[in-house]
Design brief:
The complex is a heterodimer. Chain A is mainly β. Chain A has no helices and twelve strands. In chain A, the strands form three sheets. In chain A, strands 2, 5, 6, 10, 11 and 12 form a six-stranded mixed beta sheet that branches. In chain A, strands 3-9-8-7 form a four-stranded antiparallel beta sheet, with no helix packed on it. Chain A has a two-stranded antiparallel sheet with strand order 1-4. In chain A, a hairpin with a 7-residue loop joins strand 10 and strand 11. Chain B has no helices and eleven strands. Chain B is globular. The chains are: A mainly beta, B mainly beta. Chains A and B meet through strand 5, strand 6, strand 10 and strand 11 of A and strand 4, strand 5 and strand 10 of B.
Chain lengths: ~110, ~110
């Protein structure tokens, strides 16, 4: 079974600053998908960004970008120009191509300060 | 379509009672998933449906838990003889296909067992 580790339980960042969340995973597979999901307080989880392991180019979605290091099995998320609405719990998740169950990390709570 | 919906959003019950939760996926999605999330943790996979067929059940799903998806549309998750350890957020998700396809999550049902 794949394991996903998020070593930062909480992060705090000043509005307009940049914050980076770390994620490492363990797998013996060569092809897989990685995700960052955002769960705002009392609201449903939404996808922030998705990375396919066979693509070397790091995924970017507006202010969100990832640093995917396949050899190191690392998948960090960078939030640039942080906004108050970015306050949420962020989960890193892993899935194999032929699988259907996401394996999640324990999450990182991000608080953006005004 | 307004996304994945779940009902009820909150349920408080006494130990030993039975509870049933409902999930309505995005209409064109034939894959449906149930996850359980305890406080401060990432979601853990419970079970998976492809259309009306339940293809996998996690070891987390004891024999007190049963899930159905009649006619491949909405799904129900029933917990019989609830225990305090069942207190958690129960999340439903749906997707068009498995593997790297995005899973869309509902708002969850928060269960509190007294």
């Amino acid at each position: 079974a794949q394991t996903v580790t998020q070593s930062q339980p909480e992060m705090s960042v000043q509005e307009a600053e940049t914050v980076t969340l770390s994620c490492t995973y363990d797998t013996s597979e060569n092809n897989y998908y990685l995700f960052w999901y955002k769960q705002p307080p009392s609201r449903q989880m939404i996808l922030v960004i998705r990375q396919e392991a066979y693509k070397q180019q790091n995924a970017t979605e507006n202010r969100f970008s990832v640093n995917f290091q396949k050899a190191a099995k690392s998948f960090s998320l960078k939030i640039s120009d942080s906004q108050l609405g970015d306050t949420a719990m962020y989960f890193c998740a892993f899935i194999s191509p032929n699988d259907y169950k996401l394996s999640f990390g324990a999450g990182t709570t991000v608080t953006v300060r005004a | 379509d307004t996304g994945v919906s779940q009902d009820p959003r909150h349920k408080i019950t006494k130990r030993g009672q039975n509870v049933t939760f409902r999930c309505d996926p995005i209409s064109e999605h034939n894959r449906l998933y149930w996850y359980r999330q305890t406080l401060g943790q990432g979601p853990e996979f419970l079970t998976y449906f492809q259309n009306e067929a339940q293809l996998e059940k996690s070891r987390l799903l004891s024999d007190r838990f049963s899930a159905e998806r009649p006619k491949g549309s909405f799904s129900t998750l029933e917990i019989q003889r609830t225990e305090q350890g069942d207190s958690a957020m129960y999340l439903c998700a749906s997707s068009l296909s498995a593997g790297g396809d995005e899973q869309f999550f509902g708002p969850g049902t928060r269960l509190t067992v007294l």
